[in-house]
Structure formats: C-alpha cells, structure tokens
Amino acid sequence: MAHRSWRLCLWSFLDGRESLDLKQLASHRDCELGTWLYAHAMSEYGHLHEIQTLEKKHQGMHALVKQVVELKQAGKTKEAEQEFSNVHAAAEEVVGLLSSVEQQVN
C-alpha cells in the first residue's frame, strides 16, 4: 500500500498539486520497504530468488522516481509523465514480488 500511495503522491506532483524535491525522496534503503528488506528480509529470505529480484527492482524503481522528479523540475513535463508510466510498471512488479514472497513464507 505504501508504494501505491507514493505513486499517487508522485502523480500529484506531476499534476502540480503537490510539491516535491529530491531531498524528500528516501533512498531505496531508507524507505519503508527498504528498511524491511535490509533489516529483516535479506537475512531471513535472501535465499529466495524473489527477494533478490525484489531488491534490484526496488532500487530501479527509486531511480525512476528520481528521474521523474528531475525531468519535471527541468520543465520537461511530458517526458516526466511518460517516465511515470515506467514507475507505475516497476511498482506493480515490486508488489507482485512481495505477494510471491508472502505466499512462499506463509
């Protein structure tokens, strides 16, 4: 849910309804998922292929978010909106991987 709500926040930023700067973006290690991933999941479930993939996809998603913000701040709104669709796809992959991990460990 946290990643889905973050996408809404990012879309509001693109729409001009919310302010956002690069300093507000948590790193892939410091966001809620990153904290769980590096404090718990890697040690407990790091042997799972999905956790290893999740780590890479999550890091990539943060890079995409940063790119969207940079494009918007540079006045390249159309490009930022196009890149947002990649953020959406990456976030869905992350959620799918989390669901897969949950099924395996329960």
CATH superfamily: Aspartate receptor, ligand-binding domain
State the domain count. 1
The 3D shape can be described as elongated
Which CATH-level-2 architecture? Up-down Bundle
Helix content: over 70%
Distance between the termini: 19 Å
Write down how many β-strands occur, each being a DSSP E stretch of 2 or more residues.
0
Can you give the mean pLDDT?
90
What oligomeric assembly is this protein in?
single chain
CATH topology: Four Helix Bundle (Hemerythrin (Met), subunit A)
Overall radius of gyration: 14 Å
Helices and strands, in order, run as HHHH
In terms of DSSP E residues, the strand content is: under 5%
CATH level 1 class label? Mainly Alpha
**Helix-strand category:** mainly alpha
Strand count, sense and closure of the main sheet?
A: none
Counting DSSP H or I runs of 4 or more residues, the number of helices is 4
Residue windows where pLDDT falls under 50 for at least 5 positions: none
Topology summary:
Blueprint: H1 2-14, H2 32-45, H3 49-73, H4 77-105
